[in-house]
Specification:
The chain is of the alpha/beta class. It has 19 helices and 30 strands. Among the domains are: 318 residues, ANL, N-terminal domain (Rossmann fold, 3-Layer(aba) Sandwich), CATH 3.40.50.12780; 120 residues, GMP Synthetase, Chain A, domain 3. The strands form eight sheets. It has an eight-stranded mixed β-sheet, with helices on both faces. Strands 5-4-17-16-18-19-20 form a seven-stranded mixed β-sheet, sandwiched between helices. Strands 21-22-24-25 form a four-stranded antiparallel β-sheet. The longest helix has 17 residues. It is globular. The two termini are 31 Å apart. The N terminus is likely disordered.
Length: 644
């Protein structure tokens, strides 16, 4: 493995922090040395940023790896840390959420407003029979009640399981059943692409096969007609009439906070379990450190959905624990027009934007002229999350959104890690386009070979426990051990599933999932690198690359590309461009020009489906796709294209 996964792109551009940002940065270079000198003392210091009802007796119990316990004996309440303590500190009038509905309706919630709503929701949940330790499924659009529902569960010690509002009946049913949820919180629907999108019918169908569910709590958002049963109760009738008095109880640091399901190699999703004290410590600290948050002046916007871990850690728990003011948007970036994001940044004077590479590449495809129509001068920091960002998308983001002046924090982390692990620090790091740079202070990560030894290119492994780490897979400790700890069992390392490279400066380059590494004539080639090479061509807006079985080379590279508007280029020219950029071994066997790529509702490209098309196999499950018709168009295009 030592000679594999080598990054063939040589990125020499570097962007140091702006001097004024570096001078006032929340975290300086000395944080790395402080954490290296005593990692546990460093995390204790970050834990003290929070309010604890009882301090811990022990920082970390790692006596039974891989089962970690952090801040043992400590007691706190997450909702109290996100709301009550800010109101008690006199900042209840600060805006917590500027909410914008897709149709243009708006709501502004201060910390006092959010606290009152959360207390009322907590009382309503108790009245509906939910108690500490019960599980609650949340299937909601991006409306403030989604955050309130999460905070109310956290407040009373109920474990929430948020299911993304675009998932199918089967996906929702399986998650409710696996968690044995007692209550489902949903809405009649939400707005998506200019029209109401119903949610409750999906819930009704799923709950019919879920005997554990006693009640369904429904927010009225769109006013659509909904079927009604004896289990159903309206939010406005229950929460609306509940008492606004509620004292947050002290909960154990290791109390289960949430289950979040992520797909696995088997049909059954993995229920990732996160607990309370360690999770909030790292989510809160990383939000403050990585985004250099100045809560008195910043307006922060994370464009994720609360159904993903990014929404948990960097919309709800991280920002609110830090007293941030943030924007929450219900809809899609192209409704009612393709400048919607930039319009909102101009309107709310957003200073920090955190979004995904898929979105950035889409914006670039739509054209430089769209963001140019809006005043984006309020932005001082940009972030990227979800997958490796190719250097050209990074540069486009910096130039056209950041005005060539904002640092970009390219963050690596996972549902399983709970919080950011590898990222530039905006006041410290001279960033390289496309690199997540180095592990944050207090985080131990290495690029290792098959034997677990440090190497230039190989597997990304986490070598020491971290506060926000997953505690297990819900109800399946054996699967937890096998999935994450078996590859480097002897060393006791967590294997993230990603390939990576460390360059001569120590910067980490993520190369995508190890599953997305192609073996071409004995050479391991990362799909991420070939995609980056393709997108570096001026005609290409977006690319997805897969390895398809080939009788001669073992695997061959097949690429699917979206061209920029008006671009005209031959596939042979693109193949030659890749060969020139990365070397002849990386030349795609076939390039198919497409109008769209198959993406999930979170924006991730479903390469598995493209691989099946390239290998002329049955497609398999397409239920999580945003638009399943894309696959038909790509399949038909492949039949008419020729292989060179």
């Amino acid at each position: 493995m030592s000679e594999t996964l080598e990054n063939l792109l040589q990125e020499t551009r570097q962007f140091p922090p702006p001097p004024e940002l570096a001078a006032s940065a929340n975290v300086k270079e000395d944080a790395y040395a402080e954490a290296d000198a005593d990692r546990l003392a460093f995390w204790e210091k970050q834990a003290r940023r929070l309010t604890w009802f009882k301090e811990w007796d022990q920082v970390l119990d790692w006596s039974n790896p891989p089962f970690a316990k952090w801040f043992i004996g400590g007691q706190l309440n997450i909702a109290y840390n996100c709301l009550d303590r800010h109101v008690e500190a006199g900042i209840g009038d600060r805006v917590a959420i500027h909410w914008e509905g897709e149709p243009g309706d708006t709501r502004t919630l201060t910390y006092s407003d959010l606290l009152t709503e959360t207390k009322k929701a907590a009382n309503a949940l108790l009245e509906l029979g939910v108690s500490e330790g019960d599980r609650v499924a949340i299937y909601m659009p991006m409306i403030p009640e989604a955050a309130v529902a999460m905070l109310a569960c956290a407040r009373i010690g109920a474990t929430h399981s948020v299911v993304f509002g675009g998932f199918s009946v089967d996906a929702l049913r399986g998650r409710i059943q696996d968690a044995d949820a007692k209550l489902v919180i949903t809405a009649d629907g939400g707005y998506r692409r200019g029209a109401p999108s119903a949610l409750k019918p999906t819930v009704d169908e799923a709950v019919a096969d879920c005997p554990s569910v006693e009640k369904v709590l429904v927010v009225r958002r769109t006013g659509q007609d909904v079927a009604w049963s004896s289990k159903d109760v309206w939010w406005h009738d229950t929460v609306g009439n509940a008492s606004g008095d509620h004292v947050a109880p002290a909960l154990d640091s290791e109390h289960p906070l949430f289950i979040l399901y992520t797909s696995g190699t088997t049909a059954k999703p993995k229920g990732i379990l996160h607990t309370t004290g360690g999770y909030l410590t790292q989510a809160s600290y990383t939000h403050w450190a990585v985004f250099d948050l100045k809560p008195e002046s910043d307006v922060y916007w994370c464009t994720a959905d609360i159904g993903w871990v990014t929404g948990h850690s960097y919309i709800v728990y991280g920002p609110l624990s830090n007293g941030a003011t943030q924007v929450m948007y219900e809809g899609t970036p192209d409704t009612p027009h393709k400048g919607r994001f930039w319009e909102l940044i101009e309107k709310y004077r957003v200073t920090i934007l955190y979004t995904a590479p898929t979105a950035i590449r889409t914006f670039a495809k739509w054209g430089d002229d769209i963001p140019a129509q809006f005043d984006l001068s309020s932005l001082r920091l940009l972030g990227s999350v979800g997958e490796p960002i190719n250097p050209e998308a990074w540069m486009w983001y910096r130039e056209h959104i950041g005005g060539n002046r904002t640092p970009i924090v390219d963050t690596w982390w996972q549902t399983e890690t709970g919080a950011i692990m590898i990222s530039p620090l905006p006041g410290v790091t001279a960033c390289k386009p496309g690199s997540a740079m180095r592990p944050l202070p207090g985080i131990s990560a290495e690029v290792v070979n098959e034997e677990g030894k440090p190497t230039g290119g190989g597997y990304l492994a986490l070598t020491q426990p971290w506060p926000s780490m997953l505690r297990t897979i819900w109800g399946d400790d054996d699967r937890f051990i096998e999935t994450y700890w078996s590859r480097f069992r002897e060393q006791g390392f967590y294997f993230a599933g990603d390939g990576a490279k460390r360059d001569e400066d120590g910067a980490v380059w993520l190369l995508g999932r190890v599953d997305d590494v192609m073996l071409v004539s004995g050479h391991n080639i990362s799909t991420t690198e070939v995609e980056s090479a393709l997108v570096a061509h001026q005609a290409v807006a977006e690319a997805a690359v897969v390895g398809a079985t080939d009788p001669t080379t073992g695997q061959a590279i097949v690429a699917f590309v979206i061209l920029r508007g008006g671009a005209d280029v031959s596939t042979n020219e693109l193949r030659d461009h890749v060969a020139k950029t990365l070397g002849p071994i990386c030349k795609p066997r076939q390039i198919q020009i497409v109008a769209e790529l198959p993406k999930t509702r979170s924006g991730k490209i479903m390469r598995r489906l493209l691989r099946n098309i390239a290998e002329k196999k049955e497609l398999g499950d397409t239920t999580t796709l945003q638009d399943a018709t894309v696959m038909t168009l790509i399949s038909e295009g492949m039949k008419t294209s020729t292989e060179d």
